[in-house]
Amino acid sequence: MFLCMMIIIANATILEEIEMNVQNLKLDQIHHVAYRCKDAKETVEFYTKMLNMEFVLAIAEDKVPSTHEPDPYMHLFLDAGNGNVLAFFELPTKPEMGRDPNTPIWVQHIAFKVKDRATLLGFKEHLEAQGVDVLGVTDHSIFHSIYFFDPSGHRVELACPDPKEAEMLERLDAVKWDMLEEWSRTKKAPQHADWLHAKELGKE
């Protein structure tokens, strides 16, 4: 009996130490985000020309390092600013890439921050001059966005902060948990922050 109690106490102590250690674990930042692309060269040319990204490096193997399975690939890395890296894989031996038919095309996207509205409009003008179809500017209140697609069909967003971003973020922060709980129960859009898209959706 005594031995059992000692084992229980020891296990409880170990679990408590593990929990304390877990609380000290923090992520530094995103190392990179990777997507598939249809053509490696076309992808690099698009992002360097359209968004002025720097082509950082390329990695190519005939076997996948993590799984060791034979699968030739080209892995591209592009500088997305501020230590963020956008990566792509071209997989020539795999079936043609597709997308989830049950997910609307506007849902999955890559969003990049730009400094201000003047920069956002500058990118819009540049992209359209290069023949890229651009949607927006869309008013999200806390930020303003334009949208377009890269050559592989990935939706890309450029967003600039609103001058009153900090004030609006405080309002959103105050209701985020209430909104999440209500959504979890009802699966209907909570109205705590319906002011956010009131202008864009004509609800004012």
UniProtKB/TrEMBL annotation:
PANTHER family membership: BLL2330 PROTEIN, GLYOXALASE FAMILY PROTEIN
Pfam families: Glyoxalase
Organism for this UniProt entry: Shimia sagamensis
Record's protein name: Catechol 2,3-dioxygenase
Domain of life: Bacteria
Family matches, as InterPro entries: Glyas_Bleomycin-R_OHBP_Dase, Glyas_Fos-R_dOase_dom, GlyoxalaseI/FosfomycinResist, VOC_core
Chain ranges of the VOC domain: 29-161
